[in-house]
Structures are given as structure tokens and as C-alpha cells.
Amino acid sequence: MAKQRESRWVKAVVSRIVRFFLWFITKPEWRGTENVPAEGGVIIAANHLSTFDPLTVAHFLYIGARRWPTFTMKDSVMRIPVVRSVAASTGQIPIKRGSTDAVKALHEAELALTRDGSSVIFYPEGTCTRDPHLWPMTAKTGVARLALTSGVPIIPVAHWGEQHILPYGQKKFSAFPRKRVTFNAGPPVDLSAFEGKPLTATLLTEATEAIMREITRLQAEIRQEEPPAVPYDLKRARIEAAEAAKRAERESDDGKNSTEA
Q1: Taking all residues of the chain, what is their mean pLDDT, rounded to a whole number?
Q2: Strands (E), 41-175
């Protein structure tokens, strides 16, 4: 039996506050809302542009697609007293990344999907994109695993515009004039080629790439631009940056030794 995860009165209050706030600073454009199932468990897989976009994603899902948004939220955010109370009352799922509690959180997300029929939002990239042109990056495989083990549809959602309100890594909030924020939801990602097979690392990587291709395609439709042939890999970029820093340090040391000699 489906479980009511949210407090109805808290949900009503929060949704009105968010709608009122976003009305003043955004001009939303929503495409593909018909692709979001009206009921039943569904994974919403979205790109991540800004720390502001959870509000716009929730707005799109609740007002545009008529589904209550359930997020997996960083435990650090949940430690804020007011946020913790609101999140608990609206059915959000806390997650501690890099710990055994992350597995528990994914299990709770699976229950929300299969038992409660919730719409659960995931950012497969795990963080805001660092691509220089803000295209979706390579992603973690947890969402693909959850989709394959739960059997619920996964709806790819791309959005564009929040970076003009609060760019990642910056504190300057640009509320006015109102910014156009566009959403584009596609039909369920076809993962049939991966179903019924052992969930190996290779299979999960390929399934994840299929999900991210759809999200990237949808964002390209919004932007009317050609996406990069190879998505930005944050892990590889960090390794290359660390190696470059070590080389620079060695070259600096060699230069000092030559001077001293």
C-alpha cells in the first residue's frame, strides 16, 4: 500500500511560498510535461546547473507535471534546522555521500518509488556541471542501477537558465530582471537492452551513458546548439589538473636547483 510521505499542510505552505518566490524572478517555459507519468513511481533524471535549480526543478515537476517532487538531499543540507524540518515533512530523502548510509538512502529511494509511487528526482552527475560551456558531464551509475533494479521508468529532464540567476561557485544572486528558465522533459529512457542482465560495472556505465545522452540531447534542443562529442569528465579533469600541478612543481624545483648550481 502506498504510504503518504508528506505532511499535507506543510506541502501546501511550502509549494505556495516557492511558487510566489519564483514568480518574481523566473519566466518558466515547460516542454514535455506530458512525458511525466501522472501516477506511479518514476525517476526524474535532470542535469545540474546551479545550486538554485532544485527550486526550479521542483516547480516544473509540481506545477507543470502535477507530481510532488522528492529529492535525495545531501546530509549537510539536512543539518540546517529549518531545512531539516521542512524536508522531513515533505518526504525528502537525506543521503550521506561516500558512506554506507548512501546505500540505505538508495534503498529508501527504491521504497519511495516502488511502495509509495513517488516521483524521485536525481542529479546523475552528483554535482553541478563543471563543463566550461555548462553541458551535462559524465555521471555516476547509481541512478541507472536504481532504474534497472526497481523497474520504474526514468524520465530525462534538461533545463537551462538558472546559471543566470546564481552561477555555480558564486554568491551573487541576480533576481532582476526575471530570467527565462526552460525545461524539456523527454519520454522514458529505453533501458531494455540492459534489463535482465548482471549489473556489471560495464553495463551500468553504458546504461548511465544512455541516460545522459538523452538529457544532453534535450538540453541541445533548448539551446539550439551542438553538444560536445565527448562529455566533460570531472574525475579525469581533476587527475589531469593534479598531474599538471606536480609537473609544474618539479619544473620549479629543477629551475631553482639549476640557479643555485
Answers
A1: 89
A2: 42-46, 69-74, 93-95, 119-122, 154-160
